[in-house]
Each structure stands twice: as structure tokens, then as C-alpha cells.
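Many introductory courses stop at the sequence. We go one step further.
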Amino acid sequence: MKKTMKLALCTMLFGIIAAGCSTQENSSTSSAVQQGEGELKGKIVMMTNSSGGTYNAVTEIVEDFIKQHPGVEIELSSQGSDYESLMKAKMAANDLPDVFATNGWSVNRYSEYLLPLNDQEWYENLNEEIIPSISDSDGNIYTLPLNVDKAGMIYNYKILEEIGCDIPKTWDDFLVCCEKAKAAGYTPIYLAGKDSGKTAGILNILFASFIEADNSSGQIEALKSGNAEASMFEAPLNFLVELKDNGYFNVDYVTADASGIPEKLAGGNVLFAMESNSTMADAYNLNQESTLGMMAVPTVSAEIETFLTGGEKEAYGVWKDSENQEIALELLNFMAKPENIEKVSSASGMPVSMKNAKEDLGNIQESYDSVKDERILNKFDRECFPNGMWSTMKTIGSALIAGDVTVEEASEMLMTDYKNFWLQEN
């Protein structure tokens, strides 16, 4: 209650969204009071799952929009890790925000609830590399991407040099680096296991590396056709358990909070983090002297190419049943301006999504440039799993890392939900 009252006070004083008063990953809400006369008049609700610097950048853009349209009220909220479950409830009730983050699922999950956006003025400026990830089979897009999700893993190049390791290209090399870092008193891998989505994120990377990166046995086709077998998940699940059993995670990995990841990385005691560039950008904001870089994801053998994961990241669509579509679409047009695309790109550490925007990733730019030509694999759950499996991955990942289930049990649990969700979609 105290937080809400404080935000409301900020709003009344300035007549703009005051969401910048709080940047916590957990739910934070602010609203703007409609004042004066403007070309646009009305209220919209906007919802996101962003946090940290990215959330601050989006908030600043919305504030600027309201300054230009004082007759508009925008209620902006960041739901953090609760976003997915909240949006599922809203979809079930067909009661969605006027504008909301599509969170990588603009086509497979949200398209039936969203307006097609191909006719918008910014469409022709989209970078070609992002279009396949946000288009349906008819070529329609339903979201405005503010950046492009091209991410690998975070590493500390100072620690890597100190322990005498090159950037690992295979998981065997990765394990050698982890062992050397542990022996030198460093934390090999940082995991904020209190947020089950972080463990699911590691699984997403491991599934992509062990299954998607090498499709010589046709496992991807089997997954997409409903013919997957539990055995295909055992190798990546075993690897996760191996990381835990070898003591490569931080000692408090079960209870560590996700909001503390940037601080831990900025502190210089962590070698690896299976996190996106936005986390690295937040770490550099805390400590400009950080020695962090971006590396490609290792694979199971030197014969298989390393890769980056990709797709839509910070992206927003308009609810097709919104009563204020004019305001919502005008907001998206404003967000698509080059200076706003650049602002989100810099804050998130992700490349720009528009051809008319300039890219400046600051401290991240050099390491990004070193891997930008790596092949891109769409995030595993979006590419290979039926809708709904992210929740399963969160549950299984947390149970596995806590030792509550065996690898065999986790594989069977994955298969049960995979089959059920696949049948629902087909």
C-alpha cells in the first residue's frame, strides 16, 4: 500500500507516469492522471515483465509520450516473474491489457488476442532478421519489437584469463573452466534458484545445445510431430545435475533472488551466468569496471557449431478488443521512433530492431561484435515445445536442482506434459 501511495503522489506532482520510482522485478504499478487537453484523450492499461534498466527505459518512453499527449492516462505495471501466470488468467477471462509485452510468444500464444500490425508506419523499418521470429504462416506480425534477442552466455574474461582458460566451445571445456575457477576460489556459475524461471532458462539453453544444435538424428522433427521420447531429455538433465553435484553453483543457489544477479556479476567473483545481455548491462550500470563479456553457447562436441539464442525480446502488442486502440497504436508508433529503439537497445544490451536506428551497446558492444555472426537458434521451448511447457520446465528444473526428483522421473514428467499439450494443440 505504501508503494502505491508513493507512486500516486509522484503522478499527481508531475502529471506523468511515475513507474520509474520503483524498478524491482516484483510487481510494481503506477498510473498517470489525465490532465489538460490533447489530441488524444482516454486511458489505456499497459503491462510488461521487464525489469532493471530495460524497465526504466520503457518507463521513460511512456513518460515522454504522456508529455506530448496530456489528455492520455496510462497505467503501467511490471509483473516480473509473475507475468506468465497472470497473462494466462487474463487470456482465459478474455480481459487483457490494452498494450502488453508478448514475451517471445506473439505468434504461438498471443496472436489470437492481438491486432495485426503489418499496416503500421514502422513496419517497413524492421530489421529482416527479426521478422521470421514474429511472423505467422500468413506473414502477419502482432508485436512491435524494441530490440532483437541475440544472446549467449555471460562470462568474466578477467577470471578466465587468470585461470588459464580460453572461452569454452564445448561443454567438456566448460567443465574444465568451472573446476579451475572453483579451485581458485571463484563461483563457477551463478544461479538464482528462488526464481524457478532461472532454472528453466538453464534447461532451455541445455536443451537447445544437446538437442536442437545437432539435429542429425531428427529429434526436432520428432518433437514437432508429437513423437518425442523421454530419453532425448536425459543427457541435458544429467548435465544440470552434474553441475550441481560438482559444486559449480553458488552455495545459496536454491534461495538466491534474481534481483541480486547483476550485483553478483558486477562483484567480479562469478565466472559464468546463463543469463541474457540485459543482465550484463545491469551489472555494468552498477560497476563500469566490470570485466564481463558475451560468449556463444557451447555444444556437446567440437564438430557441432556454437550458437546464440534468438527471437523477440522486449516487444509489445495491442489487444484486439481494446476500447482505446487509437491510443494504443499511437503509443506503439511513438515507441518505434529511432531514438526510443536506441534507448531500449542500450539499456537491454540487445541489438536494435529497426534499420533507421543506430546501435550503441556501450561496454557490451565489443563482446557482442565478436559473436554477432554466430548462427541463431530460436529459443528451444518456442521452437520445439507445444505451448504451456515453460511452466513444466520451471517445475521440473526446480525439483531436479533441489534433488526432489531423479533424471528419469524428470524426463517422464516432461514427456507427460509434452504429450498432453501437443494433443491440445493438434
